[in-house]
Write a structure and sequence with these properties.
single chain, 368 residues, endopeptidase fold (from Nostoc punctiforme), 2 domains, 10 helices, elongated
Length: 368
């Protein structure tokens, strides 16, 4: 966490450009700095100022995770609409084919029939067997038309049901798209408020704030390690090792809300993409990861496990080992290695609970 607030000012242009990307939201941001607020921000107690900034970041992160969840639902809904459209097109082709078959049978039966009954035709025919055979064919045609009519009725019913389902799915897609847009606008507004507050601070105040935050993070890490919450080091599974090495390979790339690589990531974008690279599909958001993946005690943490933060499960990182994590921290920062207690730890989850750890394990080199 050290120096992140100071770096935000140095990366103001980056932050501003990031605001042009997609965004999420659930809670409205507090009022931004107004007239005279720059002087107030520079005279507030440093602990109060840091708490204010951290709360704003948490609101933005909750909004980002809400946006990510809606985006995932929208992606699935679009796929469902496309699937239903495909089935509906096939059903309509079946209806068209059945109608064409009925017309063909009707024309064929008309050409094969006369006003003389088949009984009279048998009596008068030079070849009674031929007449009987012809009558049999006519009966088959009639039965075939009846079967085609039944198929037509079934195809029309299926097409009608699929059309209703497709219309409902499309309405749901439209609603999700509207919700995604609202969440995007909300997050942009929250990040703008954070940017305004940071910009209102003097260089000296920013340095003081960064130092205070760094000291608080270091103290939290000491308390966490002294509590005995973590135990001896463990080896990851093969998939966990691959996920962790992927995350380490992203160190230095920027945080961007709503992003999942390859050029930038938000917190859960990094963790979900790392495990996808390892061959394991996991939920996209930190809240879904906390809700759906296997919980593991912190004493049993192994590299590659996911550490979840805050009571609302709105932040996530990959455990590196030795009390450290790889994470995409927040806007204005880059992916980096941080102490596990940089944020309040909620718990941990394991994407591959049934797999055995590696017998021999060499931790990844931290090149940046």
């Amino acid at each position: 966490m050290s120096g992140r607030l100071l770096r935000l000012v140095c990366t103001a242009a980056v932050t501003a450009s990031a605001l042009l990307a997609p965004v999420p939201a659930t809670a409205a941001a507090g009022p931004g700095p107004g007239p005279g607020s720059a002087r107030q921000a520079n005279t507030r107690p440093i602990s109060e100022l840091l708490t204010d900034l951290q709360q704003r970041y948490r609101r933005a992160e909750r909004a980002t995770e809400a946006y990510n969840a809606t985006s995932e639902k929208l992606k699935k809904q679009r796929a469902e609409v496309a699937r239903l459209d495909g089935r509906l097109a096939l059903a309509r082709l079946a209806v068209h084919g059945s109608r064409g078959e009925i017309g063909r049978l009707a024309r064929q039966q008309y050409r094969s029939s006369t006003e003389i009954s088949r009984y009279v035709r048998v009596l008068l025919a030079r070849d009674p067997q031929h007449a009987l055979d012809e009558g049999h064919v006519i009966g088959q045609l009639a039965r075939g038309r009846a079967g085609t009519l039944r198929r037509l009725a079934g195809a029309e019913k299926q097409a009608d049901e699929l059309a209703r389902t497709a219309r409902a799915a499309l309405r749901e897609q439209t609603a999700l798209a509207g919700r995604q847009k609202k969440e995007q606008d909300d997050v942009r507004g929250q990040l703008k408020e954070i940017e305004k507050l940071i910009a209102s601070l003097s260089a000296g105040r920013l340095a003081e704030l960064a130092e205070f935050e760094r000291g608080g993070a270091a103290a939290a890490q000491r308390r966490f390690l002294a509590s005995g919450t973590l135990s001896g080091e463990r080896a990851p599974t093969d998939a966990g090792d691959r996920a962790l090495r992927y995350a380490v390979g992203q160190i230095g790339k920027p945080y961007e809300w709503g992003a999942a690589g390859p050029g930038s990531y938000d917190c859960s974008g990094l963790t979900s993409r790392a495990w996808e690279h390892a061959g394991q599909a996991i939920p996209r958001t930190s809240q879904q990861q906390w809700a759906r993946l296997r919980h593991v005690p912190l004493k049993r943490l192994r590299p590659g496990d996911l550490v979840i933060y805050f009571p609302e499960a709105t932040h996530v990182a990959l455990y590196l080992g030795d009390g450290m994590v790889v994470q995409a921290p927040r806007p204005g920062e880059k992916i980096k290695v941080s102490p596990i207690a940089s944020y309040p730890v909620l718990g941990a989850v394991r994407p591959d609970p049934g797999e055995e750890p590696l017998r021999r394990y060499v931790p990844p080199r931290l090149g940046r």
